[in-house]
Amino acid sequence: MRHLRWLLVPLVVIPLGWLLVSGFGRDPREIRSPLAGRTAPEWTLTSLDGETLSSGDLAGRPYVVNFWASWCIPACVDEHPVLSDAHRQLGEEVTIVGMLYNDRPADAEAFLTRYGDAGYSHLIDPDGRLAIEFGVTGPPETFFVDADGIVRDKQFGPLTPTLMAERLATILPSAAR
Amino acid sequence: MIPSIGHAAVLIGLGLTVYAAVAYVLAARDGDPRLNVSARRAVIGSFVAAAIGCAAMIVSLLTHDFSVRYVAENNATTTPPFIGVISLWAALEGSILFWALLATGWASLLLHRYRDRYRPLMPWVGATLATVNAFFFAVMTWPGNPFALTAPMAAEGNGPNALLQNHPFMALHPPLLYLGYTGLAVPFAFGIAALVTRRLDEEWLRVVRRWTLIPWTFLTLGIVAGAWWSYEVLGWGGYWAWDPVENAALLPWLTATAFIHSAMVAERRGGLRIWTSAMVIATFVLTLVGTFLTRSGVVASVHSFTQSAIGPWFLAAILLALGGSLTLLVWRLPDLAGGDRPSGTVSRESAFLLNNVLFLGLTFAVLFGTLLPLLVAATSGDTISVGAPWFNTVTVPIFIALLFLMGIGPALPWGTASWSTARERFTVPLGLGVAVTASALAIGLREPTSLGTLGLATVVGSIMVEEIVRGARARARSRNEGPATATWRLATRNRRRYGGYAVHLSVLVMAVAVAVSSGLATDRTVTLAPGETATIGGYEITHDRLVVEPLSSDARVIETRAEVTYAGPQSGSLGTALRDYPNSQAAIATPAVRTSLAEDLYVTLLASDQATGTVTLHLFVNPLVVWIWIGGAMVGIGAGFAIWPERRGRRVTVERPQRAPAAVTIEGA
Known about the structure:
The complex is a heterodimer.
Chain A: H1 8-22, E1 44-47, E2 52-54, E3 63-68, H2 75-90, E4 95-100, H3 105-115, E5 121-124, H4 129-134, E6 141-145, E7 151-156, H5 161-169
Parallel strand pairs in A: 3-4, 4-5
Antiparallel strand pairs in A: 1-2, 1-5, 3-6, 6-7
Chain B: H1 2-30, H2 33-62, H3 69-74, H4 81-86, H5 92-113, H6 122-141, H7 173-183, H8 185-197, H9 203-233, H10 244-269, H11 273-295, H12 311-331, H13 333-336, H14 348-379, H15 388-408, H16 419-442, H17 448-479, H18 483-493, H19 495-520, E1 522-528, E2 533-536, E3 539-550, E4 558-567, E5 572-580, E6 588-590, E7 592-595, E8 599-609, E9 614-623, H20 626-643, E10 651-654, E11 664-667
Antiparallel strand pairs in B: 1-9, 2-3, 3-4, 4-5, 5-6, 7-8, 8-9, 10-11
Helix pairs in contact in B: 1-2, 1-6, 2-5, 5-6, 5-7, 6-8, 7-9, 8-9, 8-11, 9-10, 9-20, 10-11, 10-14, 11-12, 14-15, 15-17, 16-17, 17-18, 17-19, 18-19, 19-20
């Protein structure tokens, strides 16, 4: 009986440890996108270069919508090369679209000059209406839409090369390397 | 150059604290006084290192050295110097640096002050504190390096967090809170030292009493200042939302308060010793848990600015501290057992025991509510949040019970109380309580918990006042002194007791203010075109005009401001604004608060239409809120009174100078 008191230590430490460890790798603010499995919102918007682009133009091709802002430092800076690389390497298979989130076009252009412009389009979302339709809570947030226009996956927070490959695999017919 | 100095200081701090921890353990085993001295010097050296680190960070912030990642993320070339300096604690890495400064400061002060006393205990106290501090230096060396560099170097920084530059309270709230958090390592270190050395008598409790009260006071002031900040800045008209970060500060406060009480029983009567040791451990572990929860990004909070790599480190520290100290406690259980059990059912000891059970209940409730989202996510994968209504439902009854206990506990005698003394002391206060509750009902207070709190506060307050008056009267009679002199002398000769009374009375003031302000507050949302008027609680609010302009102090910030005049119990004009910061997605509210002793008029701008000049305002009339802040300050004063050293031996009293400037009476104690 007297040795039973030693059970107190593992009885307290192990459950608490398990609970706190389980918290890692999950972002409490990440809410599963209700869009997953549904048709992506449609849009027709003007790019920073003054061209008009619409979701209809992309029909039949998988595409990635990346909500970002020049003021979103360091997350948007960190993921910028990941998107640029994806555009360079997989530009034939998938279209990448930057979507300005609550940002001034001049600031966004300065950002691209500074950190490199890979050449994919960045669209101006006046009033942030599209961001609301996609349910964006804060940049960076990236949606992965397949060739049928269905949202397959969403990345909350900055993309890393590994995450990018994982997410792209959900929309590319020939899974990304 | 400067960042390299800072980084070097952190590394030196790590080396010194690790050395101090090892040297103290060796000193404890061999009793070599030279080792003791050298370990103490290393601790003081680690304080100097932390100070150099903080200075290097402040210089980097003031010179806008964006090669440092922390500076690039929290500063911009337009940031004013004052905001630059306080940005030291605006984000994670800087906070840990500042934390290390305070923690090594406490350790140096304590170890220097008691360098020749408590011989068997002090090496273990030093070893514990040095180990804890080494952890913080290690975090800064590996996962949370405040001097990490950016590559490529940014031309312009991100600027300070918009919420943090909006109110001068940011300069006050974190330092107070951190002084409390870091200081609570001291009682923990004494607890560990007592357990290791088996010197479990009242000695360590006597030392630790003051060293718990001081950080407890800072923690209390920090929590109140945080509530005040949230009220003045966040614009939702309230001051406490049960956010995880608020709970993180409250949890160690609850167990520290329980400890302060149970330590009295342990010291005076030798009882509750296991309990008291457990509370010391819990308090320290909870300061770590709180930091972990709010800083690691595990639980969503207004404060968890970034997810960071320090999470696993804190987790390891929590489990080591908890596992290690629990093992020690279980090992020493046979030494701790014994002591007096509470002798009577109704006695001061049993009141203390009940007090501790209630505080522990509160701790579990708050901890459960804070961790539940984590538990649910871990078991079912769903995302839930536990809101204020749940916390209020669960905790308010316990708070009310504590309030009740606070009144009767100190009035009960040690040992056994007879029912007749109890009846004698409590009849008049009970009558008063009923009378006040009835009057509150008559003036329109309907909320049952508010009514109950108010009535109870009256009962408790009058018991306390009666208690003080009875003592003063007895002294006045026997020493032939005036009532004011008698009360003051009695209080200054029994600082612990009367300081405690003062704190209890201040808590009552706060309790009444919270009860009344939550029960009688009114609010409404109105949309007004220029020139239109709305009424709320005796005030007429007229919207004059809408102004949109850049802030004069920082032109990148655009302010949309409603200029309003108000008439009623207070009158004048105010401006309430939404500010758009370039680095914040949401506009930051700057509510206007007009405070009087009776009530606050609180106006916040929700939306506006620039074309027509129409604004939507949220209007609040919050009664008695200012008394929460006054009560908080009074707690600080009362605790300060209790902490102030009691003079022994000859006592010098200076009489009122205007009557007899030179008259100094000297009396024996």
